[in-house]
Design brief:
CATH architecture of the largest domain: Alpha-Beta Barrel
Shape: globular
CATH topology of the largest domain: TIM Barrel
Structural class: alpha/beta
Order of helices and strands: EEEHEEEHHEHEHEHEHEHEHHHEEH
Helix content: 25-40%
Number of domains: 2
Number of strands: 14
CATH class of the largest domain: Alpha Beta
CATH superfamily of the largest domain: Aldolase class I
Strand content: 15-25%
């Protein structure tokens, strides 16, 4: 397997891929909890650590899940997810201010939309690129909405076929982030030999979104394997109330990671592997590197189809009523609700008549029309 060294994309002032430096993203996500002052602290901490970019998540609850999704197990415990997402909702002006603060600290601003409304609003404030999270890899209308911008696509809880379908839409460059959609993700399931494989198969820059607890193991191995991007969650405190705080790294750990990645860029692959084998043991390093074959990691396999988007009813639909964009949506079903058909079938079901009464929150299946 090999990295396609000719595969690059322009992302703001940075060129990603090829022989360019690794593009390091500090994933702030929603760790700021809607507090602009806390967000600024995180941005400054990330800047001082040596990253190139900070990333946020633009949450509009109804774009992500159904109100009846129920409780979901996260690192911080079981939470009513829809209500928690609602509490994280902020107007677009909030993200515009985050963008200004980010750029005043000489960093690239990046944000993840979860639906058409959030994507359109981000484009209105002049973002230079978009990050698509793994569960939205099959939200084709969303990817099409941002197709005129450079896009970074996370590829957790997906197959090669899923990635291929998503890559139809970006028109202005795309990069791939290998990851495991599990929090925390086990290092030994990361299969980092997949990074050069993805780059070679799809002709795109590839890197890693690391949800593991170790600050340096996955990032340094990714760098050794020719990865072009590293994304890692940051928090001011692992005991914070942010959704991802328990699996995020602190500013001091992020500083350490950035320094070690820059050192690894100057070494050859063999030297980095030897150093890590001395520290972690050859057996563990070989397990983290894996086979390079794209499969669902054991830690995320049970989430396939429920974490991804599917066609779901968002209103009670009566027998004989037409399916429309007002009574259906592309949502994550999570564990409590039953997923529907893949989003690629959305145009097929629209304007078809329901064969029976369908309760809001139910996945739309072939026998529904």
């Amino acid at each position: 397997m090999f990295i396609n060294n000719n595969a690059t994309i322009q992302f703001g002032k940075h060129q990603i891929g090829g022989n360019n430096p690794v593009f390091i993203i500090a994933e702030i996500g929603t760790s700021h909890e809607g507090d602009l002052k806390k967000a600024e602290e995180l941005i400054i901490a990330a800047s001082e650590a040596g990253v190139d970019c900070v990333k946020f998540q633009y949450v509009i609850a109804k774009e992500i899940i159904h109100p009846d999704t129920g409780n979901v197990s996260l690192p911080g415990g079981e939470i009513p997810l829809f209500e928690r997402f609602q509490k994280l909702e902020k107007p677009i002006d909030f993200y515009s201010e985050l963008k200004q603060i980010t750029e005043s600290n000489n960093l690239t601003f990046l944000c993840t939309p979860f639906g058409i409304e959030s994507a359109q609003n981000l484009k209105k404030i002049g973002v230079e690129g978009i990050k698509i999270a793994s569960p939205e890899l099959n939200h084709y209308p969303l990817i099409q909405e941002v197709s005129n911008l450079p896009v970074i696509l996370s590829t957790g809880v997906s197959t090669l076929g899923d990635i291929e379908k998503a890559l139809v839409y970006p028109e202005n460059g795309a990069a791939l982030l290998h990851c495991i959609t599990s929090y925390p993700a086990p290092e030994e399931e990361y299969n980092l030999n997949l990074i050069p494989a993805l780059s070679g198969i799809f002709g795109r820059p590839a890197g890693v979104s690391d949800h593991s607890a170790d600050p340096i193991l996955v990032p340094l191995l990714s760098t050794a394997m020719g990865g072009s991007i590293i994304e890692k969650h940051i928090t001011l405190s692992k005991k914070g109330d942010g959704l991802d705080d328990p699996i995020a790294i602190t500013p001091s750990e992020l500083t350490h990671m950035c320094k070690e990645v820059r050192k690894a860029e100057k070494r050859n692959q063999k030297e980095t592997l030897s150093l890590l084998e001395d520290q972690y043991g050859e057996r563990k390093i070989n397990r983290v590197l894996g086979t390079g074959i794209k499969t669902l990691a054991p830690a995320e396999a049970d989430n396939y189809k429920t974490t991804n988007r599917s066609i779901m009813a968002i209103q009670n639909i009566r027998k004989g009523e037409l399916f429309t964009k007002e009574n259906t949506a592309l949502l994550r079903s999570e564990k409590f609700l039953t997923p529907g058909l893949s989003p690629e079938n959305y145009n097929i079901i629209l304007n078809r008549k329901a064969t029976h009464n369908i309760k809001s929150g139910k996945g739309i299946s072939w026998d529904c029309f």
